[in-house]
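Worked example 2:
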Amino acid sequence: MRQSLAYAIDRGTMLHYLFGDQGRLADSVLPPQHWAYNGDVVHYPYDPDKANALLDSAGYGRGKDGTRFHLTMKTSTEETTRLLAAVLQQQLRKVGIALDIRSFEFATFYADVTKGSFQLYSLRWIGGNEEPDIFYYAFHSSSFPPKHANRSYYVNSEMDRLIDAGRSTVDQEKRKKIYAEVQKILARDLPYINLWYFDNVVVHSRRVKNLRLNPPGNYDFLTTAELQR
């Protein structure tokens, strides 16, 4: 079912109309510039016909009204996330999935997310993907809330084994191969559906020098910034 959701979502159209193409489609939690990134994984282009076929084969038939089942997506009251949910609602309706949207002020929304009280939600990683240890934080079976951020309570023993191996290995080339396998499994199992990497943009005076933005979008670039008089 998660794979059918991925095929049913037209990420390119959303990125274009909601965010003015200020980003690129994602296929991993890690950005493409990361040393451990692996782009050789299963991809999910927009394909509602394939989404319908997968749902049919999984036994989720359409009712008389054309609906297969309902899902609930929780969002904050922030306008952009509500727009994103509204577009998802329209896209999923095309494959027979009725998406019910529930919006809450951010503290309530985030509290529900961190304790796993949701079916669907959307949040951004900011600065969390600098190290591949994010896989332990978000996908290891020992990282359920409130300890860490495996909020979907995803469990895969092979994933645990690979993540443990990556954390205990010093050799970067060996770690890269391990995390390549991790990303292949995640692309197949889809505990997350990766949407996009936003462009990092900074506007500054010409007096500010040595600004080097990094892919995770955090504020480390300020450590090298200089203000010339």
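The two ends are 58 Å apart (CA to CA). The chain is about 35% helix and 10% strand.
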